[in-house]
Specification:
Elements: H1 2-8, H2 13-19, H3 37-42, H4 47-80, H5 87-115, H6 123-161, H7 170-173, H8 175-189, H9 191-194, E1 200-203, E2 210-213, H10 218-222, H11 224-264, H12 271-310, H13 321-349, H14 351-361, H15 363-389
Antiparallel strand pairs: 1-2
Amino acid sequence: MSAIRSEISGKDVTDFYAENATVPVYEWTTDPPEELSALDKVLLISDDQRMLAERILQPMMYAFTALAIPLAVLNVVIFSRKEMRCASGTYVIALNVGQLFYVVTVTVDDVWAKASDNKYKRYSWCLYNYYLNVYSGLLVAKRGSYVILCLASVERLYAVIRPLHVKNFLLSKRPLLCVLVVYAVSAVWHVYFLARSRLVMGVNPQTGETLCTFPRTDLYLKTKEVNGAIGLAAKIVLSYISLALQLLLNVLTVWALRRHNMAARHVQSSANEEAKRQQERQLTITLLGASFCFLVFSLPNVFYNVFATVIPEFSLGKKYSNLFLLLGRYTYNLTVLGCGVDFFCYLGLSSKFRNTLRQMFLGGKKRSGIQESKLQTVASDVSQIQSNSF
């Protein structure tokens, strides 16, 4: 085991895994052997300290997941109701579905791996991890959700700047089509990941165990530079540029909203027009609040990935490697928590969301309230008739 770790030290784990098809990459889930004590002296955080911290961070992840999943499902259900249907609601549903799929796949992968004595012995787990967890969840769904949020912000910005023409705007007119196109493009763009490796059963020469390995494909070896460029472009465009653009769109929407409100003060409008304007304004503010929370909880994980790419000390076996692993767990916990926080943004900023939620769970009380109002109307009519008779 120590020989494996010394070979991986300072090297990309995926590259090592591909070059040594019969040698699995182990995760340190048990106490490190004594021969690694010299390496622990170099590490900023020892393996024992990292494992102690993970015993705290992992239950937090399960708690956040238990909170985020039902709240995300509730968001989808509420925005799917007839009274909440709109272009922005379609983007909210797509965003929650993408984030929900990402969280569920990662959680199932983590629980499955912990339940196995050695996860690399299970071909089914490796198949799930490679195709569903990493490709479908981490790459396609997660990065696609960043673009979906950008589309929602563009649609809201256009609605504030040109409210009379928003119905003819493509993002408002065909929101479902735009969502499907985004996820389809994300799936096609990330095919490069599937072309890198293949799943085979190999034999560990040290133990003789049959384990899953991910050797590089011939296609990848022939087009390594092109494949790497496509992967880097996907990371930059779908993650970094999308989130930076999202931040810029939020600033522009706030500026346009303030300008629109100042102009509306000098224009006389009917009660219906004023009510509709207030409704659109509340929807824009609600999505602004939700997107701001999304950025706050997602950016740490993005910065973590940037640091992991540009800082060599984060490589496995280097001084900050254990700190790097802990930061990954911590930033992922924030991402999971962010999937549930947006529910409270909708609840606090949107009266229509609150009313729809109340109707879902208090439908019977709503009907009794209507009956009570009818009785009050009948009583007032009776009292009016009696007063007229006198």
